[in-house]
């Protein structure tokens, strides 16, 4: 067994059985090892940002890390934007980054770079393999780190000679299932007193508290105390729709967020931080709460939110309280012009049960979350890190993680161009992804931000930097070139019908929503 075979075998033994890969020359032995291990699924991505984004999507639906294969420092650099998004979403990921052999590095070949320097700012753990003898140990450590709660980014640098040398006997560190920290009893008692005071409170949920048992228990707390349940504007994954505990969304824009939080005396945080503005704006605050609003952490990011909420229910003597659940809202199929409201209504009517909605619609989709509360049960995934070009790769990973579920990927045309290579992987793998491109032929969000920043009215030259209509992107041709069937729609009813049609046949498709 050579080092590469030892690495792949250890990944599989530790529960990492998929690799999103964009290989190069220095990774050929690793590529051979991937191909020779039937327990490892290899997924080819034509750009590293697709590989890292897909690993993020896999984790969000599986709660276990995937691996990526990236070619040297430039390959890692190409994937960093979606590693950033994954880190902000607390997604676990094991990045295998190829490197020149130790003997070759002394000659400073053209692709030499400071891989550790690139990796460290966005990784929780970075290690360079010393040789084939240590590769199994290093790999097991990487997987253990990525599997912690919250999930972490582990980056393992693999020199070529470590891949082709014989590994010999392999040794692994003692492994144990990740254990989430127990919450602090005094903190829970303090929050119980706050909730019993009757003062207006909002419980802000994030990460694993927005789904499963933790979400249900949060609903019980809200029903027992009258507290509101909220989330940050972007959340890693929310289980929502009919039959689920509803969560209010703190608005993106600062004035609307301040109005939303008016009257709230206490913010209680569960696996998240105090709400802040996405950017600094002239004459607008960074913190969204009022000055007289107190902030109380209930569950830290590495603690067990389901257990904490159970303990809180005990103190409130409310374990038998039924949570408030969202009722099904039968949304009429909209007709006429496409706008944020009719788009949201069409989406609410069309979402199939069990759908995974990956949202990077930015300006067009601002109304979608509020108007789809009563849709069929579904999961919603948002961009936690704000670096655009995340949605189509995340949809790839989510579809591979849940092959029996349809993925609706909503993305603006400007964002889609960052990682459009995702369509090719969707076609190659036959993934059940409906990619919805909102084609307004501009970076529309930047037009709004131009005004928000107080930069005045953009002139012709400034507008030219945020319009993408010269030339206009041919989305139907783009999809066809990558093997994905596509259709364009120009009315609300045709948009609804196209979404419904996309769920009737397996495999990917693209809908261009012409605005």
Structural description of this entry:
This protein is an alpha/beta fold. Helices cover 38% and strands 17% of the residues. It has helices spanning 3-13, 28-36, 48-62, 72-88, 102-105, 115-119, 135-146, 160-164, 185-196, 212-225, 254-261, 305-316, 340-350, 368-371, 391-401, 413-416, 422-429, 444-452, 460-464, 475-481, 492-502, and strands spanning 18-21, 41-44, 66-70, 93-99, 125-128, 153-159, 201-205, 228-231, 238-240, 248-249, 266-270, 294-299, 355-360, 378-381, 407-412, 433-439, 486-489, 509-514. The strands form three sheets. Strands 9-14-13-15-16-18-17 form a seven-stranded mixed beta sheet, with helices on both faces. Strands 2-1-3-4-6-5 form a six-stranded parallel beta sheet, with helices on both faces. A five-stranded parallel beta sheet has the order 10-8-7-11-12, with helices on one face. Strand 1 (18-21), helix 2 and strand 2 (41-44) form a beta-alpha-beta unit. Helix 3 crosses helix 15. It is globular and about 65 Å long. The mean pLDDT is 94.
Radius of gyration: 24 Å
Oligomer: single chain
Placed side by side, the strands forming the largest sheet appear as 9-14-13-15-16-18-17
Let me know the largest β-sheet: 7 strands, mixed
State the low-pLDDT regions, or none.
none
Q: Would you count the extended β strands for me?
A: 18
Query: Globular, elongated, flat, extended or rod-shaped: what is the shape?
Result: globular
Proportion of beta-strand residues: 15-25%
What's the rounded overall pLDDT mean?
94
Tally of DSSP helical segments: 21
The structure class reads alpha/beta
First-to-last CA distance: 56 Å
Fraction of residues in helix = 25-40%
